[in-house]
Structure formats: C-alpha cells, structure tokens
Amino acid sequence: MLLVPIIGLIDSLRARLLTEQLLSAVRENRAKVIVIDITGVQALDSKVANHMVQTVEAARLMGATAILAGVSPEIAQTMVTLGIDLGRIVTVGDLRSAIERAEELLGYTVTRSRERVAGAR
After folding, report:
1. Does pTM surpass 0.90?
2. All domains of the chain in start order, with CATH
C-alpha cells in the first residue's frame, strides 16, 4: 500500500510530477492499493482535477486500486460542476476510512487483542 498525502496548491507542473513519481512508486513497490489524501488541498482547477483522474486510471492499468480521501465540500462541488467522472475511483471521507478500506482490499483484518500489556489500564 502506498500513502500519498498532498498538501497545498496543486498546479499542472506539480500534478505531472506527482503522476510520474506515483507511477514509478507503484512499479517499484508492486503496490496494489494507493491512498491519495487531499485533505490539505484547498482547491483544484479543471486541468488538475482531470489530471488526477488520469493518474488514478494509469495506476489502475498497472494493477493498483486508488482510494481518494479527504475530498472537501469545495473540491467535491468543483468536480461535480466540471462533470469529472469519478465512477471508477473509490472515495472516502477521511484518511482513517481510506486506510481501513485499503486494508479490506488487501485482505487484512485488524482485531483488538484481548490480552493487555502488563501494567496497562
């Protein structure tokens, strides 16, 4: 699993660099799931939003499933207004939900241990 937190302004150049690095990391790490957290992104223009969708599609062609986390109301509105098709992209509200979804996709189960560490309350 790869975790990609994105913070700040994303312009076309930064989006292109992100795509190149992400796809290289998918290949090098043989990643099956990518969590892209955009909680720290304030806004996306149409070019960058379309570029992100293309990046997710390229990763899918390489065998990885992308999960988009932390879509703000403003970004959601922008994507809907621009008619960007998110039908093939898994989206969740926050990073924790994304990691839980990634673990499900990878077949992992997280359980709480019944045994307590000595001295823990």
Report:
1. no
2. 2-106 (3.30.750.24)
